[in-house]
Design brief:
The protein has 436 residues and is α+β, with helices and mostly antiparallel strands. It has 13 helices and 16 strands. It folds into 3 domains: 147 residues, Beta-Lactamase (2-Layer Sandwich), CATH 3.30.450; 124 residues, PAS domain (Beta-Lactamase); 156 residues, Reverse transcriptase/Diguanylate cyclase domain (Alpha-Beta Plaits, 2-Layer Sandwich). Helix 10 packs across helix 11.
């Protein structure tokens, strides 16, 4: 047949040649959710497609894996599979598929032909492309990936409750016109939104909210966490832009999901750094006055609401002024740092927080601890300080005041009591613990 002149070929001849040339021919029924393979050779002979099978499984194999690997898309996203299998007309795209155990993809040309007068039935033809076309496709894909940080985009018509031109860039650069209503998409995608952001997502994506709050040509966006195709929570920016038309009753939008995870993580790290600077004492790196006061107030609140026991301990280094006067302020700073290290180590494993109240005074807030145990801890800490070797000065002692916070205490009342307890220890000769 190959020696025939062009003028002598018939349609039957060409159909026969196609049958011999195409790598795979599949007939599918999306309504009955099944397919049958009529031709299967080359790349497709290794069971990528079965002789017969579940149509949605076939769509999942072809579409739902990450674009640059054969890694499967996580389960929640598979709820979209059925919408990707409905075609409104002829359709063509290139797929990147992997044989079992291979790290090298094959580039597949897919063509879909809806059967005339049978809207739910399709003919699929698939061919593995030659290496030169594969190289061209891979290079283009890399350029596109570098240029775009958008993970997902689609066109939305709120009046018609439709979506269109859906693109999931992590799967493919191609767009898909899936038969997916906006209302369905919204209630499916909320399952991928981080738990702290679901309520905001449902509010901002509500059709009535968008109609009321976005004028033509205007945009709204918000940042949230979203599960990506690998099942990992990442930070994204969700963007809604209302298309500007001459009809005020048009409510058409472009929706985008932008990957901002790296920038967000860097920003949060910077914010955490400044948060620590705002909350910590610069010399000792313990909580500063404001932070430890907040801890006391929060502990009081827990006591009143939940009955959780709270105790306060206030400590003061004895004769610390003599350290500065005799050895200098640099030596005094070293003593304070060493003392702070002792306190940090002492509260490890305890439900307690420690902070520098000011100068050589420090406060420990205990939660949930039996008060007798708190008193034991205070005495043990006093002895540990007494026998510790401090840099440049050798030994120094501390005085301690301890009080159990009552449910009817205000912050001022509780703090005044622990302060009096500390003062009593100082007045009684220092290097002792007093309970009030």
């Amino acid at each position: 047949m190959s020696e025939k002149r062009i003028e002598d070929y018939t349609l039957s001849d060409v159909v026969g040649l196609l049958e011999e040339s195409v790598d795979a021919v599949i007939i599918a029924d999306s309504k009955e959710n099944k397919y049958k393979t009529l031709v299967r050779r080359g790349f497709f002979s290794d069971n990528l497609v079965e002789e017969t099978g579940n149509y949605h499984d076939l769509i999942e194999k072809l579409w739902f894996h990450l674009a640059n690997s054969n890694e499967k898309v996580v389960g929640d996203y598979k709820s979209f599979v059925s919408y990707y299998g409905d075609f409104k007309g002829k359709y063509s795209r290139r797929l990147k598929l992997y044989k079992e155990g291979s790290n090298e993809p094959s580039i597949i040309q897919l063509n879909v032909y809806p059967i005339v007068n049978a809207p739910d039935k399709y003919i699929f033809t698939m061919d593995e492309l030659a290496d030169e076309y594969k190289q061209e496709y891979m290079t283009t894909g890399k350029v596109n990936a570098i240029q775009s940080s958008y993970l997902f985009s689609m066109y939305v018509d709120l009046v018609e409750d439709t979506t269109g031109s859906i693109n999931v860039s992590e799967i493919s650069d191609d767009t898909v016109n899936a038969a997916l209503k906006y209302s369905e998409w919204r209630l499916m995608i909320v399952n991928m939104i981080g738990p702290d952001d679901k309520e905001l997502f449902l509010k901002v994506t509500d059709p009535e909210y968008l109609k009321a709050n976005l004028a033509p040509g205007r945009m709204t966006s918000f940042d949230c966490q979203m599960v990506n195709l690998e099942g990992r929570l990442i930070w994204v920016k969700l963007i809604f832009n209302r298309v500007k038309t001459k009809n005020e009753e048009d409510f058409r939008f472009v929706f985008l999901v932008q990957d901002i995870n790296d920038n967000s993580e860097e920003l949060f790290a910077t914010l955490k750094k400044y948060e620590n600077l705002a909350q910590k004492d610069s010399l000792t790196e313990l909580m500063n006055h404001g932070s430890i006061k907040t801890e006391i107030i929060n502990a009081l609140d827990s006591l009143k609401k939940e009955g959780e026991p709270v105790a306060l301990m206030m400590l003061d280094l004895d004769h610390f002024k003599n350290v500065n006067d005799t050895h200098g302020h640099a030596a005094g700073d070293k003593v304070l740092k060493h003392f702070s290290g002792l306190l940090k180590e002492f509260i490890k494993g305890k439900d307690a927080e420690v902070g520098r109240w000011g100068g050589e005074e420090f406060v420990i807030v205990y939660r949930g601890k039996n008060f007798d145990k708190v008193k034991e801890n205070a005495e043990a800490l006093r002895r540990e300080v007494e026998f510790s070797d401090f840099p440049e000065i050798g030994h120094i002692t501390c005085s301690i005041g301890v009080t159990e916070v009552k449910k009817d205490d205000s912050f001022e009342k509780a703090f005044e009591r622990v302060d009096r307890a500390l003062y009593a220890s100082k007045e009684s000769g220092r290097n002792r613990m007093t309970v009030l």
